[in-house]
Please model this.
Amino acid sequence: MPEVLTAPLVVEFPFTRSLGPVQSAFLTGLRERTVLGVRARDGRVVVPPVEYDPVTADELRDLVEVAPTGTVTTWAWNPSPRRGQPLATPFAWVLVRLDGADTALLHALDAPGPDAVRTGMRVRIRWAAERTGAIGDIACFEPAREGAGEPAEEAAGVGAGAPRVGANGSRRGGEAPLRGHNADGQGDIPAEGAEGAEGAGGTGAAEAAEGTRAAETTGTTGTTGTTGPGRTTGSPGTAGCPGAAAYQPQAHSGQFGEPVTGIIAAARLDYVYAPGRTQSRYIQGLAERRTLGERCPACRKVYVPPRGACPTCGVATAEQVEVGPRGTVTTFCIVNIKARNLDIEVPYVYAHIALDGADLALHARIGDIPYDQVRMGLRVEPVWAEGARYPDHYRPTGEPDADYDSYKELI
Model:
């Protein structure tokens, strides 16, 4: 049995795109530690913002600022971070609905382990120390901790007495928030009296607000219904995301100094490629300056490079056939854009070549001839560099061009 080859392979493409007014404002805002969303036609606040309404396709420009705190709506634990991911240590991928938003933002949550993550937990943004106007300006999310401008995590069940943002956007301090449930069954209800509780969780929440001081010591949570030690039961309050009643998104012009107008996203895939037994034999044959194909036992066509099965008949191929080395150009293109890390001057020609004895054309570069003289039917042969395991390019043989009928089925 032949040795099955393997090799590391990297596919990389730096994607460059310009930004419209909405995405420009969003990314520039992140650089300034400001999270912007856009208000859709139905009144929902979409974060990250989109340029067109996802329902009506109308153009959207009504930007609003949302809070840097929010609620986890769902999550998945990532035990083995890969290169380029937000954190180098194990973390959770989370969807976070920021206070004031109606949609969730995907990012990483820095947590010590999966037991420390749950749907409904309160989190806040950890900003990157150096920000450039990219999604990475949000380094990650982290649990909202007691005494850090957010209540303790939901499991604690006690208000921290930290400042809260009221329904009118003002900061309020010294009042313990009731841990309550909105229409989603989770969230914060600010204990600012009956009127504020009604805005957060319905008339029953107003009754729960009367137990604010008790909440500080017993961990009472409130929605609508009757209170008990550490919890109330009943129907949910107003619709909306957790924290929505406590934080109202503020209109924003989207104007910043030195706006970000374009981004470069480096798409990269690292993996180990194993060609299998059939193509391993083909690659090893090239190292011996032989081109090996395989013949289908049904249709008798010879395929190069071989795949181990006939693409037409679907049966396994085992009979090896040496083809070439000469062949015929069936079709070609002229390349005018220089690829990074490819030391070939443009323009150059890339062609499909039907090797003598093969029933499938392979592709290769054509050299040693001006690009504007390459043509269909041109007879070519491989050129090997010193110590190379495969042909560097193909060049003209000097033979007369092949008749069109001899290769028309291979175009």
